[in-house]
Design a protein that fits this description.
It is an enzyme of class 2 (transferase). By secondary structure, this protein is an alpha/beta fold. Helices cover about 40% and strands about 20% of the residues. The radius of gyration is 26 Å and the shape is globular.
């Protein structure tokens, strides 16, 4: 391979950064096209933190558009013989993110233009309109998207490909949506650690080209490799790439965590590499299209086991896709940490001070506008009842500027503290009496586990599988006006009625204990990883 031919000096650029990105991109295509001559054209785009890649069969000529100020140069990798077919890959390397972008890359949220006036005048009316639109999409979802499993045939008359002997230890490919903060991502990172503990080599891919802020939480080990397919490989090339990776690295198991291109690659994977076992984990049914559980159900005949985190999802696979027998419930609990987690709830009836928290990413799913409106109503209630109210709102995201403006507009800046996403959440929950979770949708929110374990009572919308951890009397309707009104009523009753408060504490304890009797995700997945680690190389 020749050195990168520089057409412009890299005076203002990080040569180490560019070298790493070039090496990453080249390694992907050397795996994808092992028998080809590769010609790389590299650019850097100072205007964006997103990468692009285009692939052409043959020795494509350079277009003048590629040779502007961002042009870096070329790398040519000869094929194994003179007649090797050629492939041209044009790569645009993203610039390194700015410090502010490392915290938040989404543009600040704005209501759709026709509704901006409504939001300025009456934020809750805007929320009600959006809620009604969401429910309309939900009613149309089954008519717009497939809700039956794709067939997968085959005959014993035809031989199947066999696994090549690589001499390498067995490996797992873990496919994630992205490496950003979220419940599915937490489980994904946990499974990477568990697979490594089981003795597997681990390859990690993500489908969405984000900054992948959690990549620093991947185990620092030569047995764990993060492949930047999200940046440098178009989705339509994933099936061929995965096949080549499976063959080269002795991958025996694929675990899908909300990774769309890996689902789409399943027909190729199951026919080209039939010795590979495929499992997936799902978390939440989305209103608009069913989300990843629906996608998983569609591909169920290509998947060996579905791991789910809630009872609701067990019912979903059975009722929507008639899938039984290979759906396994594994809770996102740590048996050691949660065994004796409950130490008593702090809230006492009639207490003179009350601290209420909200913890979540500031995206529409968590409905931060409704959080602020709830604090506004609670502030009035506290004043009427001579209660000293304080609140903490933890999170970052595109809704943050709107939340800041509303807090100022409602005069809550002395009562509600806005805290960054890296706040010590366990410590906050240990000094919080109540936690608000007025989400538009949830699977089974991890933060509820955390709150109950820290003695904080959660109040949640009745969505997803929240009923499995939050008692019925602490669940509120999803309609925005009802969410705020019912939350206020529950807080008032908890504060006034000692018997009601005592009953909720008992029911929270019982629900948490019941969840603790179920299998954990690790108990479901670890035997599969261990069995895979013992398979032939």
């Amino acid at each position: 391979m020749n050195h990168l031919q520089q057409s412009t000096p890299l005076v203002q650029k990080s040569t180490d950064y560019i070298s790493r990105e070039v090496t990453e991109a080249i390694s992907i295509y050397k795996c994808l096209y092992p028998g080809c001559e590769l010609r790389f054209i590299f650019r850097i785009d100072e205007a964006t933190i997103s990468a692009t890649a285009t692939v052409s069969e043959g020795r494509a000529p350079l277009h003048v558009d590629l040779l502007g100020a961002g042009y870096l140069g070329q790398v040519n990798i000869p094929g194994p013989h003179d007649a090797s077919p050629a492939v041209t890959i044009s790569i645009s390397i993203p610039r390194p993110p700015l410090p502010s972008e490392r915290r938040q890359t989404d543009t600040p949220w704005q209501p759709q233009r026709p509704l901006r006036f409504i939001f300025r005048m009456a934020p809750m009316l805007y929320e009600q309109i959006r809620y009604l639109a969401e429910m309309a999409r939900w009613r149309r979802a089954d008519k717009s998207h497939r809700t039956s499993s794709l067939p997968f045939g085959g005959s014993a008359l035809f031989s199947k490909p066999r696994a090549p002997a690589t001499g390498k230890r067995p490996a797992i490919l873990v496919g994630m949506h992205w490496l950003e903060v979220g419940g599915a991502e937490k489980l994904g990172l946990d499974t990477i650690r568990w697979a490594r503990e089981a003795g597997l080599r681990v390859f990690v891919v993500a489908s969405v080209p984000e900054l992948q802020r959690l990549k620093g939480q991947l185990p620092d080990s030569p047995d764990v490799t993060f492949l930047r397919l999200d940046r440098y490989l178009p989705h339509h090339l994933w099936p061929r790439y995965v096949e080549e990776l499976v063959r080269a690295e002795n991958i025996r198991l694929i675990h899908i965590h909300h990774c769309r291109p890996l689902y789409d690659a399943l027909p190729h994977i199951r026919t080209a590499t039939p010795w590979v076992k495929v499992i997936d984990s799902t978390h939440i049914v989305e209103y608009a299209d069913g989300g990843y559980p629906r996608i998983s159900g569609v591909w169920s005949n290509f998947i060996d086991m579905h791991h789910v985190i809630s009872g609701q999802l067990e019912d979903y696979y059975r009722d929507k896709f008639l899938v039984v027998g290979k759906v396994r419930l594994g809770r996102m609990l740590d048996r050691r940490e949660d065994a004796g987690a409950l130490s008593g709830f702090r809230l006492q009836a009639g207490q003179k001070s009350l601290h209420i928290s909200f913890i979540g990413r500031l995206y529409y799913q968590k409905r931060p506008i409704i959080v602020v409106e709830t604090f506004r109503r609670l502030s009035r209630w506290a004043a009427d009842n001579n209660v000293e109210l304080s609140g903490s709102l933890v999170g970052e995201g595109p809704f943050l500027p709107a939340v800041q403006r509303l807090i100022q507009r409602y005069g809550l800046q002395d009562k509600v503290a806005l805290l960054p996403a890296d706040t010590d959440v366990p410590a906050l929950l240990e000094r919080s009496d109540l936690m608000l979770l007025p989400s538009n949708n949830e699977g089974l929110a991890l933060v509820c586990y955390e709150a109950i374990g820290r003695g904080c009572i959660p109040l949640s919308t009745d969505v997803g599988s929240q009923y499995e951890v939050v008692p019925a009397d602490l669940l509120v309707p999803l309609s925005p006006y009802d969410t705020v009104r019912e939350t206020l009523g529950i807080v008032d009753r908890l504060w006034r009625d000692p018997a009601f408060l005592a009953r909720q504490k008992q029911e929270l304890t019982a629900a948490f204990s019941k969840l603790g009797r179920d299998m954990t995700a690790k108990e479901i997945l670890m035997p599969i990883y261990e069995e895979t680690a013992l398979s032939a190389g």
